[in-house]
Design goal:
The protein has 410 residues and is an alpha+beta fold. The chain is built from 13 helices and 15 strands. Helix 1 (12-25) packs across helix 5 (128-137), helix 6 packs across helix 7 and helix 8 runs antiparallel to helix 9.
């Protein structure tokens, strides 16, 4: 392995990996970074990569593809891992891996390396403190301030925070000083702000009446949501390998978009489609979280989701206030909401007398089961009377049953 392509973020692990690879494999290391909208000083990142021993830094601009190919698929699916996590880290990985592979091939690399727990399986460095010592011994700048050493991942969709005091679930997160995209809700403005999103085919295309490309739209909603402390999540999740992990996530734009999309689907999708789609949404989230974006099942899931989204179009107005979201109005040309059906007064499409037949048919399985249970109970009492000369069952009022005929009737 004379040349290795390293998925490089500039964080602690990947900063340490560069000199470690060179020392252990006597190879050239090319640092490759995917630009998925993370807050980054790109000129500074290149200096950092070169200072750690990389021969060069290659940056792949993936923002447009990230939004249009991955994030919009996530929104249309309504995918929330364990019903809460908006999959910010997991959503970026497929594109980063794809771009890394393509770049490694074009650069003539014979191997690929990455951070994300990989080094811990093969080196004898046992902690983040030892990583810091490793860098200091080689005169390589440590990529963070020691007082703010949360393990973070960020992109256009979110920022995640792990480690330090968050490793103890009993500790309340100290949001002031930790957060990067949002203000703590209690520090948000006292006056609420309204935002209106327009959707076409399940995808947001405009904010407050202004058409925007996906990258600009997400960036704007991050600013608006972050200003009002919207999209902060403290969660203990189940990792793929079975362990539990706690993190604090900031996803302001994602939280706003997903809430608006959900409200629009409630208006435009029928009951059974919504019910089945909820099952599909869970599977989508699991597949993405587990790294199976490039799989036949995920292709099939996305195909189903897309088939439901043609009618998910219209506008949704939300009120942002101190970390909360409230729906302030929905409209759609594909709305299934009919006032004459929803009203307590009788409309032309629905006669309340039709309910009688529906109720009889709908309750038929329950009635059939009740009849069966009554027969079973009667048979039990009948058998008891045949085997005992005198058999009494006392009711709550002190009365008793003493014959087969009475037991069967009971």
């Amino acid at each position: 392995m004379k040349k290795i392509a390293l998925a490089y973020s500039g964080g602690l692990d990947t900063t340490v990996i560069v000199p470690w690879l060179k020392e252990n494999y006597n190879c050239e290391v090319i640092a490759i970074c995917g630009d998925v909208g993370q807050a980054c000083d790109w000129a500074g990142l290149e200096k950092k990569a070169l200072a750690s021993g990389a021969s060069k830094l290659i940056i792949n601009d993936l923002k447009k593809e990230f939004v249009e190919k991955t994030l919009w698929a996530l929104v249309k699916a309504g995918g929330l891992y364990e019903n809460r996590y908006l999959l910010g880290t997991a959503a970026a990985r497929p594109l980063i891996a794809k771009a890394l592979t393509e770049t490694a091939i074009s650069e003539g690399c014979s191997a690929i390396a990455h951070g994300c727990t990989a080094p811990w399986r093969i080196w004898d460095i046992g902690s983040r403190e030892e990583e810091v010592t490793y860098l200091e011994a080689r005169g390589i700048p440590v990529p963070f301030k020691k007082g703010d050493s949360y393990s973070r991942d960020d992109n256009l969709w979110h920022v995640s925070h792990e480690g330090l005091d968050l490793e103890d679930p009993e500790n309340e997160p100290v949001l002031d000083g930790m957060l990067k995209m949002c203000v703590p809700p209690e520090q948000a403005p006292d006056t609420p702000e309204y935002v209106e999103l327009k959707f076409e085919n399940g995808v947001p295309v405009a904010v407050n009446g202004k058409a925007m490309d996906g990258v600009s739209l997400v960036a704007l909603l991050n600013t608006l949501g972050g200003k009002h402390g919207v999209g902060i999540l403290d969660m203990v999740e189940n990792r793929v390998v079975g362990m539990k992990s706690r993190g604090v996530y900031e996803t302001p734009a994602g939280t706003i978009i997903m809430e608006a999309h959900t409200k629009l689907e409630q208006l435009c999708l029928d009951r059974k489609a919504m019910s089945f789609k909820a099952t599909v949404a869970q599977r989508f989230a699991e597949l993405l979280y587990e790294g199976e974006w490039f799989s036949p099942l995920m292709d099939a899931v996305n195909a189903f989701v897309d088939s439901t989204q043609a009618v998910v179009a219209g506008t949704v107005k939300l009120k942002l206030w101190k970390g909360s979201l409230a729906c302030a109005g929905i409209s759609s040309p594909y709305s299934l909401y009919d006032h004459s059906l929803a009203s307590f007064t009788t409309g032309p499409l629905f006669d309340h007398h039709d309910s009688t037949g529906f109720i009889n048919l709908y309750s038929l399985p329950v009635k059939a089961r009740g009849i069966m249970m009554a027969r079973q109970l009667a048979a039990t009492f009948t058998g008891a009377v045949k085997t005992e000369e005198s058999y009494h069952v006392h009711g709550s009022g002190g009365s008793c049953l003493s014959s087969t005929k009475t037991a069967a009737a009971y």
